[in-house]
Amino acid sequence: MSKIIASAAIRGAHKIVNDADEKWKKAMEKYGANEPVGFPNTAYFLPVIYGMLGIPVEKLGDMEQVLNRCKAILPPPVREKHPLPYLGPTLDAGMATLFAEELAEAIRYLEEPNFYTKTEDIADDNIWLGAADDIILRKRGIEFVDGTAPGFAAILGAAPTIEIAKQIAEELQQKNLYVFMCGEYNGKRFSEQLIEAGVQIGWPTRLVSFGPDTSAAVFAMGFATRAAMSFGGIEPGDFRKILIYNKDRVFAFALPMGYVTDEWYANAAGAINWGFPVIADTPIPEILPTGICTYEHVVSNIPHDELVAKAVEVRGLKVTVADVPVPVAFGAAFEGERVRGEDIYLECGGGRTQMVEWVTSKPMDEVEDGHVEVIGKNIRDIEPGSRLPMAICVEVAGREMQDDYEPILERQIHHLLNYAQGVMHIGQRDIAWIRIAKQAIEKGFDLSHIGTILHAKLHQDFGRIFDKLQVTIYTDEDKVKEIVETAREVYNVRDARIEGMTDETVDTYYSCTLCQSFAPSHVCTISPERTGLCGSYNWMDCKASYEINPTGPNQPVEKGEVIDPVLGQWKGVNDFIYQASRGKIDHYNFYSIMNDPMTTCGCCECIAAVLPLCNGIMTVSREYTGETPCGMKFTTLAGTIGGGLSTPGFVGHGKYNTTQRKFISGDGGLLRMVWMPKSLKEEIGDRVNTRAEEMGVSNFLDMIADETVGVTEEEILPFLEEKGHPALTMESILG
Ligand code: SF4
Ligand code: ZN
After folding, report:
1. Per-residue confidence at 321, pLDDT binned at 50, 70, 90?
2. Which ligand 1 atom sits closest to the C-alpha of 603?
3. Residues 6 or more apart from 29 whose CB is under 8 A from it?
């Protein structure tokens, strides 16, 4: 340990502990010892203190013993002559620093409750997120455990230019690392630089703006400490195990950018306790011999374009970056990114043009592996802000390939295209929707890269079930129409495979958690009579998906004990969703819109809503963009209820599900339907009539109002009365 670092870290620690002590004394005078303190929504109190010392700080008065511990372990300043060995005392100084910072931040939460947003996303007027609550910890921390995210980079300070900030952030994102940002250098902050560079920050893009001050570094350490307690099952106070868990399991490192102050040294000394090394861009003294960290402790003076590579090497991180040869960055970190307004270069689908995506299998000799073709206009033929129709046709061949696998490959298109930076994808089948950002086009992205991505990634993830894959992208209106027609026939055949099976005849349902990146608490449970709300996955598809990928997003769910046969609730399902939603949702009903309906994500083909005046329900499909009798358009409905929550009175569902026998059977079933858009009536009308006939009502379709009758409850009620709609004489839907 260098003497310079040791002296600086110890000086910094003294200052930080003294500051915290003063803040605490003032707070005690103002609020008294019994004032509750803590970080929001967490069971881990002040997590570094709780993890290391086992002390649950709940009240201001509890802080005293922590401050005493800080003072006890704080080493005296390094003597100029005859200095003692430094490593141990410096590490202790680092610990005291983090304890003191955690106290200071907790006092800030007390004094300025709105200083941090306490959310996953930044707000318009506040970019500082503050400590991650337990929901964020469960959702994000699990990625550290399952390897989706290998770890994090804690950035202090600011880059010399916003371009360098952006480049470093992207490089870290591409390695799937989280970036935890805090502190200030030269009046600038890394988070602010990213915003200035037009980069989206927040938990969804893994660029986490913890806070403006250096002390916010303690939120990163708290996150790591809680991960060890929560996922490693380590007891609070068992500091040794927590530190070793982090050293071995969490690939984290600190990147101080700019002049390293005493306070930064003190924090760095703290991080080294966790095995997190420091890689600096300035010429600070290095600590090369290894000991606590896997390799070196402090490496300095690294040029900016080598910083990330050096950090990865020093931390001993093995990164498997998929080689997807596209000109934009590609990886799970970009999945949550949105493309909006002025940023849009090209938009296809979303109700404005037709868009369809379709995977089909072919004989071996009809597929040329890796062949990608764009037929019709490509990027160079259009102006920024354009719209085009689009069909993405993926043809696969292979000895192991079966028709049953087509829907599974097809459903991957959604997240795979979202992995590309500057590409946003929503929906599926014939209601797919894509936006490509100007920034992606500037880097050279064109439509053929959609094919490149699908070829590379589907091979990588599903290479076991097919040998060859080719992609054709059509943007020509007539051709797209033709493919929509063909694909719709195939969708019908796929949907009908489930016909005749009932929920009672199987013991196992399947889960789908593919949509959790957008709707974190959302879990679809798919039974024979309740197809996934996106319409792309039915029970058969999930079963096949589980067979090819036993650890994937479709897991078998044992129904277990029946809790409510009418509303459709099972103990096994409840247990599963509690765990899969990370504690957010503990039960839901399969067959009800009124009583705790299933959760809804943004992919739903249709959204049903209760219409109290008509004693019934309406449903609206994504392609209908007009007003509806519930007072909201599809997009507003999706924005309101599509975040993964269960919202009584509203439920997302697949088109096909509308005519499945269990469709809201707990509330009276299909005969409650009083309004649908005309296009949907045309599309599923025959099946609606057949199903209603079974329920004893002939020509039911004619009794259902649409936009030509009206778009308010008042407008459609006389029509329903005139037709003698069965819902009007059913018992009150409000119960
Ligand atoms: Fe899976 Fe449901 Fe998302 Fe469809 S909507 S992909 S079934 S989670
Ligand atoms: Zn979804």
Report:
1. very low
2. 5
3. none
Cβ atoms within 10 Å, residue 708: 8
Distance (angstroms) between ligand 1 centre and the Cα of 288 equals 49
Number of the ligand 1 atom closest to the C-alpha atom of 604: 5
Query: What residues does 121 pair with on adjacent strands?
Result: 202
Atom 7 of ligand 1, nearest CA residue: 532
CA distance 622 to 587: 27
What is the distance between the alpha carbons of residues 678 and 289, in angstroms, rounded to a whole number?
Answer: 73
Domains and CATH numbers, the chain: 3-315 (3.40.50.2030), 332-494 (3.30.1650.10), 503-729 (3.40.1470.10)
Residue 572 CA, ligand 1 centroid: distance in Å: 19
Q: How far is the CA of 417 from the centre of ligand 1 (A)?
A: 16
Both structure tokens of 476? 């020509």
**Residue 520: alpha-carbon gap to chain centroid:** 6
Tell the residue nearest (CA) to atom 4 of ligand 1: 534
**Tokens 């969804």, located at residue:** 204
For residue 595, pLDDT beyond 60: yes
What pTM does this model have? 0.68
Q: What is the structure's pLDDT at 710?
A: 97
Ligand 1 first shell, C-beta below 6 A: 411, 512, 514-515, 524, 532-534, 536-537, 601, 603
pLDDT at position 632 over 70: yes
Q: List the residue whose alpha carbon is closest to atom 5 of ligand 1.
A: 534
Determine the atom of ligand 1 nearest the C-alpha atom of 522: 8
In sequence order, the 6+-apart residues with CB closer than 8 A to the CB of 511 are: 523, 524, 525, 526, 542, 553, 554, 555, 556, 557, 576, 577, 580
Residues lying with their CB under 5 A of ligand 2, a single-atom ion: 515, 601, 603
Kind plus residue range of the DSSP H or E element containing 686: helix 678-694
The Å distance, Cα 568 to ligand 2 centre, comes to: 22
Helix (H) or strand (E) holding 533: none
β pairing state of 650-653 and 606-611: antiparallel
Q: What is the pLDDT of residues 232-259, one digit of tens each?
A: 889 999 999 999 888 888 888 899 998 8
